[in-house]
Amino acid sequence: MTDRQAALRDIAAGLLGGGQFATFIGFRAGLDPSRPVPHFVRDASGAGALVINPFCGAGLARHVLEALEDGPVGILTRGCDGLGLERLIADGRVARERLHIVAVACRGAVDPARARAILGRIPERAEVDAQAVTLIAGEERRSVPRDSCLLSRCLNCVDPSPRLADSWLDEPLPAGVRDFKAVSHMEQQPPEARYAFWARQFRRCIRCYACRNVCPACSCRSCSLDDPELQERATSLADQFGFQFTRAYHVAGRCVACGECQRACPMSIPLSLLNEKFLKDIRDSFGIADPHRPSAVEPLACYRPDDPESWRGDAR
Amino acid sequence: MTAQPKLVGFACRWCSYAGADLAGTSRLEYPASVHLIRVPCSGRVDPTFVIRAFQRGADGVLVAGCHPGDCHYASGNLFARRRFALVKRFLEYLGLEPERFRLEWISAAEGRRFAEVIREMTADLERLGPNRKLREDP
Asked: A2 Cβ partners below 8 Å, 6+ apart?
């Protein structure tokens, strides 16, 4: 852990000291040890503030849009950040050559709220491996299952390491295959139960737009969600369905499944369950393996003459 | 239900709208439930249009275009086919009844097919009753 942190600081200082890079994006310590925050380092002397630990949860990819205005950017990159950067590059929002990607293999990030609930106080450190999470505060060490305190997006993660890298802090971990278990489970519910579930979720939406603002696939300068009609009416349930449909559909075929929208949602709406439905259907209908990993042509920006039509008969 | 269901149909101007016209000039009978909106191509139909129709009181939505291979713009309907394959499943995932949304290929010569689709959909919607799930509160 400390080795990686020292290496990260060295690389960041080197990049910023060389004069070619204007910003390095990583994490610094936050208000409490379990909440590090995204951080822009602007000169070599500031690199000592960078930290790397299992509490680093926020996605970093989207921040390059702001940082690149000042010049080339170095960025700490886990698998999810890497997919986000690939998305921004594929969308023509970011030029690959203006990035220095410092890759790190990630075994999952700890949800600070859940960790605190388990420990009864704020954890100071955490250790994450493939089997368990160890939360540490003072003399106390407690080992708990991964699914009890990791961010939900990390539990479904199949991209622990980025595919793009300019330097590595450690050895890459192998990629996996998404199983869409949660989507399949939802699909098996009766329609009325599904509607009731989503009504319960969408009703909570406060239209803070955090889901859009953190999304690496949702960076259009002119955004459909800024439609005054969507902004001025947030009261009826039908509007909430309309808003959520529009957000999810507009990233369909472009979503990298980083789960940052769900992590950022202050109302804990399971947005990944919407995005993953599109991903699963793209895989099953159009035969595209791993549709969350950006490719040269987006699934909805192309067609095959023999795309299946059996779904059109579903109605009867 | 007693009131006739409201069906919003987006019809491509080259094929399906002409098909609807043929149904009319052929004096074919079909329910007056459909409110037809002429669009340049089925590929022009933004899925947001579909949602908006449901919000504004539609009980069902039909998107109708040229048969694959016959698109006036060569591939508009093929893009639409991919798009609405996802949209239809997604609406069902949110809990909407599958019968409320259909994508159909109706050529300019298929007045009979147009009338048949409207009859089928109207019967389905009568059976289901009004759309209350996606409709804005009155």
From this structure: none
d(C-alpha A309, C-alpha A306), whole Å: 8
Distance of CA A237 to CAs A103, A170, A315, Å? Answer: 43, 48, 25
Contacts A–B by Cβ distance under 8 A: 110
Q: Are A52 and A87 in contact (CB under 8 A)?
A: no
* Distance separating alpha carbons of residues A153 and A198, to the nearest angstrom: 19
What does the pLDDT profile of chain A (316 residues) look like in tens digits?
A: 579 999 999 999 999 999 999 999 999 999 999 999 999 999 999 999 999 999 999 999 999 999 999 999 999 999 999 999 999 999 999 999 999 999 999 999 999 999 999 999 999 999 999 999 999 999 999 999 999 999 999 999 999 999 999 999 999 999 999 999 999 999 999 999 999 999 999 999 999 999 999 999 999 989 989 888 777 766 789 999 999 999 999 999 999 999 999 999 999 999 999 999 999 999 999 999 999 999 999 999 999 999 999 888 754 4
Q: Which domains does chain B have, with CATH numbers?
A: 7-128 (3.40.50)
A188: nearest CA partner in chain B: B93
Residues of B in contact with A194 (CB under 8 A): 93-95
Q: Spell out which residues of chain A touch residue B89, defining contact as CB-CB under 8 Å.
A: 277, 281, 311
